[in-house]
Amino acid sequence: MLMENPLFHELKKHLSEIKSIEAVMMLLVWDQQVYLPNGGAVARSRQLAVQAQLAHEKLTAPIIGKLLDDLQSYQINLPYDSDEAGLLRVTRRLYEKAVKVPPAFKARLSAHLSKSYQVWTLARPANDFAAVQPYLEKTLSLSREYAHFFPDYALIADPLIDFKDTGMTVAAIRPFFAELRRQLVPMIKDIREQPLPDNSCLYRTFPTAAQLSFVREVIKNIGFDFERGRQDLSPHPFESLISIGDVRMTTRVQENDLSQTFLDTLHEMGHALYDQGLYPDFEGTPLADSASASVTESQARLWENVIGRSRYFWNYYYPKLQAIFQEQLNSTSLETFYRAINKVQPSLIRIDADEMSYDLHVILRFDFELQLLEGTLAVRDLPEAYRERFKADFGITPPDNRDGVLQDVHWFDGVIGGQFQSYTIGNILSVQFYEAALREHPEILDEIAHGEFSALHNWLKEHIYRHGRKYTTMELIQRVTGKSLTIEPYIRYLRTKYGELYNL
Ligand code: ZN
Predict the structure, then answer these.
(1) How many C-beta atoms surround the C-beta of residue 213 within 10 A?
(2) 11 burial via Cβ count (<10 Å: 0-12, 13-18, 19+)
(3) pLDDT for residue 446
(4) Cα separation of 425 and 176, whole Å?
(5) Could you state, in order of their start, the residue ranges of all structural domains in the chain?
(6) What is the distance in A from the centroid of ligand 1 to the CA of 267?
(7) Model confidence, pTM
(8) How far is Cα 96 from Cα 288, in angstroms, rounded to an integer?
């Protein structure tokens, strides 16, 4: 751009201040997860609350509204695809969302959720649903109140979904989820009737240092830039964007579980590659972010599952892994290893689920969120409803609430509504995007089989990463694949891969 409109320039100055505050918050959270001693926990929450308040005040300041209004005539003449137009659209959206919610409500919600979280941390190990029930009831009523600040919705979950996935609605998502469930339940039933593959090769002793040096070699080779990012250890792996030149990911290592470190690392690396690939000029603006929770999840799942559990990938990497862990893996063939990391065994816990049954965990929670919000299911009936639905979908009944309805933190430290759909939309999109990449570059598969990832990585940079938050999820899908969201590539992928593994 040659000369910036002075009002636009002023808006960017304000946005850059907000982004700086948010970056400080991200760094505080990163430190909290990686280094912070317990003694600092209370002070850290206070520090974060002050920063959040500051960012909120700056975003909702009247000057932002005025600048956006004054820039409307400028915006009209900008091409829709231009970065300036994108920035104005996204800023308008964030501003309007932020001003609609009274700060007093936000304070009430966050005070309630921090209590609810405290109660949950004790109630879950004690298998005590009754302890959380009143908190969950209050969370539900606050979630409805939250949605009511955005009254133009068709269904009450819509505004809550919109926070994570702008433009997505229940009406758009529900048919995909229903179809996916219809296909998955019988496939999983068929798999359950077969003998389980032996995956004991993953659970021998693999020293921490050797595991870490292997995964670091892999992510470096794929394209994670250690000059503009780091990898550290934390109990719950996560990724955070401090700035486009400072993208951090964490992983965890268990000596007796080889696949966990590896798959967790590839997952977080998927998020990190996205952030490292954002267009550098977006720095300091709200465009320096992923398009949505679903799109960033699609990037994580692409590397974790579609690539990281594929034959192509392990053709190249398994001999290297064997060379590092000679004693542990010498007698295990590539085929045995491949079957082990793709073992399907429906289990109680969502975050430990295999690739095939994972979505059923998500769809179940999505459906319950809708029923709770719409008042067709009462909180007190949730444990029983959960057990019944779980039995119907997975063929097993959770023995208790601890590993049933109490397992996910989401409903206990966040609102009810919009918490889960991104995981499954992310899975659906991971394959829809990957098919588009393969159509354009069929050589990607052969490259991967030779430990080369540049064709795929470059395609992702150009078509997805670069645009940051400029387009909504639906706009991006259309631009990247020439189609709207579709579930067929994902179902075809699962059927082909697991059909071959399990003779379905
Ligand atoms: Zn993720």
Answers:
(1) 12
(2) buried
(3) 97
(4) 9
(5) 6-100, 200-347+442-470
(6) 6
(7) 0.96
(8) 19
